[in-house]
Amino acid sequence: MADSATAATAAAPSTPRWNVERPFLTGRFHQEAKGNSRLALDSLSSGGSDRAIGCYEAAVQELVVLDDLLSALVGVEGRYISITRVRGKEDAISFHVDASMDLSLQEMAKRIFPLCQSFILISHFVESRSQFKNGLVNHAFAAALRELLLGYEAKVAQLEHQFRLGRLSIQGLWFYCQPMMGSMQALSVVIQKVSSNNFVGSAVLNLLQSQAKIMAGDNVVRSLLEKMIQQASNAYLSILERWVYEGVIDDPYGEFFIVENKSLKKESLTQDDDAKFWSERYSLKDGIPSFLANIAETILTTGKYLNVMRECGHHVQVPGSDNAKLMSSGSNHHYLECIRAAYDFASGELLNLVREKYDLMGKLRSMKHYLLLDQGDFLVHFMDIARDELSKKLDEISVEKLQSLLDLALRTTAAAADPCHEDLTCCVERSSLLKRLEDMELNRTIPDDSEFEEPLSITGLETFCLSYKVRWPLSIVISRKALMKYQLIFRFLFRCKHVERQLCGAWQVHQGVRALNPGGTAISRSSLLCRSMLKFINSLLHYLTFEVLEPNWHVMHNRLQTAKSIDEVIQHHDYFLEKCLRECLLLLPGLLKKVEKLMLLCVQYAAATQWLISSSIDITQLQEKPDNSLRSEDPKSRKSATQAQASRSMTKNAAVTNSVLKFEKEFNAEIQSLGTILSSHSQAEPYLTHLAQWILGVGKNQ
């Protein structure tokens, strides 16, 4: 706020020097006598009077004092009333009378001096605050005070006319001055605070508001201050008008309570992970006028909506804005109705623009198809044709080749009918999903001594990800931050799909050797383990898709249909993503690490299946088909050889069985550990009960 005010002051035109150097042009009617003292007292001479006023009779003294007081009321010295002012202290003004003056006249004059002092202070304030650097509110306030002083001076002129006609006494002067005393003194208090604190903009309005509340018991003074508020706020409300009707900040002196950060561009929405554009391009700053404090957020949002439409090339005019001039006058809150009407119009117009012209729901449905695997046929085809490329190490993967394979998969599946499929792109991250979550602020609760260690050489299967091109103004809703959350969910689903495919391949291998009737070998046990692993991964995928993503999507879809503003749309969309992240375990590091261990175990088992099956087949053949060379040998040698062959078969069978048992034991231990964690977290996170029911059958057992 200080920087913007300084910049605005520096850009303001300077006041001509002659306006300051020639005091008679600035309202300082009393001459300045430069003394030799260091205090530099501005003592004004007594007009060269030779005789003291005490030499005259009381009646004559009253006439002379009346003449001097009428001059003092407009800041001019008289013959027996002098004005003293300290240089550099504009509010340090004092009036002095001739000591020989009649005591009753002195007392009457001293009663009127505060009014004279108030006039001088106000007059100087009007001159000084009319300079460019003091801002529009001070200009308007000074103009209102100048109008007030014109009425005041006209009143003094009328009193002087009565004096010339011989119809005015000093008591009469005091009588006519009393109604003006309270108003002028209240204004002098305000301007002294404004000058001493160098208030500008909303600070001046807030000071006037608080002073009007203090003077609530004096109707005349309160009405005057409310009139000053109305006239001073007109300049401020003119800035507000352009903002709520056009979305433009026309604030040459940095007084408005909304500041624009021009360094943030709309393009940053697709690059900035924190989505700062929508929240920080336009923001509130300190110094909001008290009469706008309760509606400041609405004002900010209204202008932001109009800005979005303008940057989209969509010309919009708030209806009735020509006749709905914002004005503040006492208890009249018509300006609040105008602001709310402008907000309702801008909100509805932008929402219709995003929904109808830019098809927000269509874009979200498309992202659901691809990033949330709502229609995963393209992914099955892609994983088939890109298997070799995805199996490579990170440095060996060609993203261009993956992109061409992705395009081929999209064109040859049902996704080709989606007009948005061309916005889908692929990328390869530099770390695994769990490592990515550990590095994000979303999971600061993950301990540093994490049990999960990044593999030394990860492949594209662990780092592959889809991305999506989102253009303005949809990037307001689907920002880079929101897209990143979609990508995290996709990577987890892709990882589960890969594990499922590997286990399905292992299951097919098992089914291929059923004709051998491998009863009594490790194949039967391995087949049961493979089926348990498939049940686990299928149950996990069923939970993620049908228990988390689909229900939450329908809730969000219904809420978006009834949303009244783009902010509500952003809020509902962000809530949907946050809820999906949490219920997909991506914000629960302890559970996610257990699931990752189970999936890693499944992949290792699927990779070892071929060896297990081939070894089991060899064992079966050794048991069922004895060596033909043994038939020609004598019975004693044949028996010895058969025993040796059986021994080798038993040894190999034991090795295969031990391998299967090792996988089975580790898998069961991890499943039980996962069940314990699910049970401990289910009270705080009720949705985990569904996961336990699908994976472990906890609900059915109970």
Model description:
The protein has helices at residues 2-11, 18-21, 58-72, 103-129, 135-164, 170-197, 202-214, 219-246, 276-280, 296-311, 334-357, 360-371, 377-385, 387-390, 399-411, 433-439, 460-463, 480-512, 522-562, 566-583, 589-624, 635-681, 688-695, 698-701, and strands at 41-43, 81-86, 93-97, 258-260, 282-284, 424-428, 464-468. It is mainly alpha-helical and 702 residues long. The strands form three sheets. A three-stranded antiparallel beta sheet has the order 1-2-3. Strands 4-5 form a two-stranded antiparallel sheet. Helix 5 runs antiparallel to helix 8 (219-246), helix 10 (296-311) runs parallel beside helix 11 (334-357) and helix 19 (522-562) packs antiparallel against helix 20 (566-583). The longest helix is centred in the C-terminal third of the chain and has 47 residues, at 635-681. It contains 24 helices and seven strands.
Report on the biggest sheet: 3 strands, antiparallel
- Going by helix content, strand content and strand pairing, the class is mainly alpha
- From the alpha-carbon coordinates, what is the Rg to the nearest angstrom? 44 Å
The average pLDDT value, as a whole number, equals 80
Alpha-carbon distance between the termini?
62 Å
Q: Got a strand count?
A: 7
Shape: rod-shaped
Number of contiguous helices: 24
**What would you call the quaternary organization?**
single chain
Give the strand order, joined by hyphens, for the main sheet.
1-2-3
- The percentage of residues in β strands lies in under 5%
* Helix-residue proportion: 55-70%
